[in-house]
Design goal:
Layout: E1 4-6, E2 10-13, H1 22-34, E3 39-49, E4 52-61, E5 66-74, E6 79-80, H2 91-101, E7 104-105, E8 141-145, E9 157-163, E10 166-173, H3 181-187, H4 191-199, H5 206-220, H6 227-255, H7 259-280, H8 300-324, H9 328-334, H10 342-347, H11 352-356, H12 364-367, H13 373-376, H14 388-411, E11 430-437, E12 442-449, E13 455-461, H15 464-474, H16 483-490, H17 494-498
Parallel strand pairs: 6-7
Antiparallel strand pairs: 1-5, 2-11, 3-4, 4-5, 8-9, 9-10, 11-12, 12-13
Length: 499
């Protein structure tokens, strides 16, 4: 057996993961990715194991709702052929392994730093000496943007190579705010500390990352949450999607100077996040999701408030969408701008919206359902143009979908009563994985425990980890003045990437 097949939110003994020699490990996982378009890599990482580095690869089969797990042990002194030479979706995973452990690849196509973590293998590698790609030519010029930006956004550096106004190449350099969150999951021993860490992985994905953590932790503890907890978590995920998509449409209008759209979409977002404030006391949903319990049950009174809010939201949302999507000046900036082809989406391993706007059906809510998505029978929204316009229309359709889901879920809500139950000690010597479809795309958390059930490794993957390369490719042959709208239409996370 070359892999073990498990389901989302499942815990297995670590010893059951097949340990392969490296070449067999490489060949088998490349084979799994090429057997159908329905498979993709959800995580590939390494961690110290005695005197060696243990590599774990997780390949999701979206058609069978299975995740194939395999492993291999190598030493830091080995020179190894790379997965990335055979399949580009592994390029950033292997760059991180190289950065963390110094593992040498003989044929990796782009072996550059990813995050500049505090505990990186080569401490001489610094943000200040990042090896940018260059083209020597008297006709071309470079434009550097960031890491400090004019707007109130996170730090990241964008290095453009341009011919006049035309972008030939963009390289995105991140890693400016590595907080060491994965290591903090090991160092912090209290459950409340760990769930607080999950809430702060990415400030715009509080529900997404926290649900991933609690689903994983409950799996480790063999705890099966009741429907009231599952309902609250699913409502939080869809409400977060609704709020962020609405805010993104506002930002996209801002970047094409459509002030009415900017103002109206921005105004529509505010009551949505204010509802989180009414529900749990925080507009970003911090404090709402907890393992094995909730401190803020979803009551009939809250359901009535949310239903009323959604009724008011829907009519105004449709009105402003009709204005935006028929406005020639806005459409001229949206259409055929920042295009990612289906082939590029597959090659770079995109997930979430970035995949679905390029005709790639990749949505954990339908392929590996979690919480109450089985009840909703979710059907992903798929677009095929791959441009800014497709990303705007996808948001509109997903907003319509989320409003419907929220209303349907509330019809079957309970009285709001909840009786917390104590959690058992996490399973010893075990591996657990949790996939959640956040508003941006696929979130993956993995954990490994020791013989006493303590965490010895915790691995986080935000969807932005997959999608930054796609954004960089999408601006090629665009005007540099189109970069703000392209970047906003992807709306990727800096801190979610840097961790």
């Amino acid at each position: 057996m070359k892999h073990i097949s498990i389901k989302n939110n499942q815990t297995i003994p670590l010893r059951e993961i097949p340990a392969l020699d490296y070449i067999t490990f490489l060949e088998h996982n490349i084979f799994l990715l090429t057997k159908s378009q329905g498979t993709h890599c959800v995580n590939y990482y390494g961690f110290p194991s005695e005197e060696k580095i243990k590599l774990i690869c997780c390949i999701a089969d979206d058609e069978l709702s299975s995740i194939y797990i395999s492993s291999s042990e190598v030493t830091a002194t080995q020179k190894l052929p790379s997965f990335s030479r055979r399949n580009l979706v592994f390029e950033k995973f292997e760059r991180e392994i190289h950065e963390n452990f110094g593992l040498a690849y003989t044929d990796h196509p782009w072996l550059k730093p990813v995050r500049f973590p505090f505990n990186r293998f080569n401490k001489n590698s610094t943000v200040g000496d990042y090896p940018f790609f260059k083209i020597e030519s008297e006709e071309l010029h470079e434009v550097g943007v960031g890491p400090i930006h004019a707007g109130i956004i996170e730090p990241g550096h964008f290095r453009f190579i341009c011919n006049g106004e035309q972008i030939l190449h963009l390289e995105v350099q991140l890693g400016y705010q590595h907080r060491g969150i994965e290591q903090l999951f090991i160092e912090k021993k209290k459950l409340l500390q760990r769930v607080t860490l999950a809430e702060n992985i990415a400030g715009d994905s509080v529900a997404g990352h926290t649900v991933a953590f609690v689903n994983l932790w409950e799996s480790l503890c063999n705890y099966h949450p009741g429907r009231d907890l599952q309902l609250a978590r699913t409502l939080a995920l869809e409400l977060e999607r609704l709020a962020i998509h609405t805010g993104d449409l506002s930002g996209m209008c801002t970047d094409v100077a459509y002030q009415l759209g900017s103002a109206v979409f921005g105004r529509l977002r505010t009551p949505l996040i204010n509802f989180f404030q009414s529900w749990c006391g925080n507009r970003l949903a911090k404090g709402l999701v907890r393992p094995g319990k909730t401190n803020f049950p979803f009551t009939p009174e809250l359901a009535a408030e949310l239903n009323s809010l959604l009724d008011s939201y829907e009519s105004d949302f449709e009105d402003i969408c009709e204005e935006l999507f028929t406005l020639p000046s806005a459409l001229a900036r949206f259409e055929k701008t920042g295009v990612i082809t289906t082939e590029q989406a597959v090659t770079t391993g995109t997930v979430g919206m970035t995949a679905r706007m390029s005709e790639l059906n990749r949505d954990i809510r339908s392929s590996h359902p979690h919480n109450l998505y089985d009840e909703l029978n979710h059907q992903p929204v798929i677009k095929n143009q791959g441009d800014v316009y497709a990303r705007a229309r996808l948001r509109r359709k997903e907003i319509n979908q989320s409003v419907g889901y929220l209303k349907a879920l509330m019809k079957n809500s309970s009285s709001g009563e909840h009786k917390p139950a104590p959690l058992a000690i996490p399973a010893p010597n075990s591996f657990a994985i949790s996939l959640v479809e956040g508003w941006r795309g696929e979130i993956c958390h993995c954990a490994i425990t020791d013989e006493t059930g303590n965490l010895v490794h915790y691995k986080i993957k935000d969807p932005s980890f997959h999608n930054w390369l796609a954004m960089a490719l999408s601006v090629r042959n665009n005007e540099i003045s189109d970069f703000p709208i392209v970047n906003k239409s992807f709306d990727l996370s800096y801190c979610g990437h840097d961790l």
